[in-house]
Amino acid sequence: MNNSKIILRTPRLILREFIVEDALNMFELNADPEIIRFTGDEPFKSIDEAIALIKNYKQYRSYGYGRWTVLEELSSEYVGWCGLNFNNESGETDLGFRFKRNMWGKGIATEAAIACINYGFNELKLSKIIGRAMKENRASIRVLEKTGMQFEKEFDAHGGKCIQLCKQK
User: Angle CA(142)–CA(93)–CA(80) in degrees, nearest 5?
Assistant: First the structure.
């Protein structure tokens, strides 16, 4: 698996640290306007931008965790990313995820998200994990709810209303 550090395995998925070879897949993921519709993110301008993101990604070194590439266990196919991210400004750790459209509606996001939450509490000894989503993004909110997160607050971001859910150990 190309010198990548495997973090988690679920019945259907492998979650591992980003590697440069993920750049094309990340570029393609962010190129789909429907996938990034509720994220506030712009598509990468080039594969080189995706490579730079991976090379400059400091969460693993700084905090011992981060967002992770998600592969389908049986095929090793790249299906997206999921993981935890420490926000310096708020001092909170948030759960985030993004998956290819052909994976939507199959429970993949929920499976990966639950694994990340459990890892955060059991291995990293975090006391609280948050999740944020645009209020219109019912599918992502549902995934967060399925992890056991509950509504915490509403706020404005990315030109719209967002909600924050949280789960505490």
Answer: 55
Q: pLDDT per residue over 61-109, tens digit each?
A: 999 999 999 999 999 999 999 999 999 989 999 999 999 999 999 999 9
Beta carbons of 93 and 130 less than 8 angstroms apart: yes
Beta strands in 17-124 (DSSP E): 67-72, 78-87, 92-99
Residue 36, token pair as written in the block = 């990034």
**137 and 164 in contact (C-beta within 8 Å)?**
no
Structure tokens that stand for 168 in this block? 């505490």
Q: What token pair was written down for 58? A: 């400091």
Tokens linked to 62: 């700084």
Using an 8 Å Cβ cutoff, are 166 and 152 in contact? yes
Rounded CA separation 115/118 (Å): 5
- State how far the Cα of 34 lies from the Cα of 165, in Å rounded to an integer: 23
pTM: 0.93
Instruction: Note the pLDDT tens digit of each residue in 2-14.
Output: 567 999 999 999 9
65: amino acid identity, one letter: Y
Alpha-carbon distance 16 to 40, whole Å? 25
Contact yes or no for 31/44 (Cβ under 8 A): yes
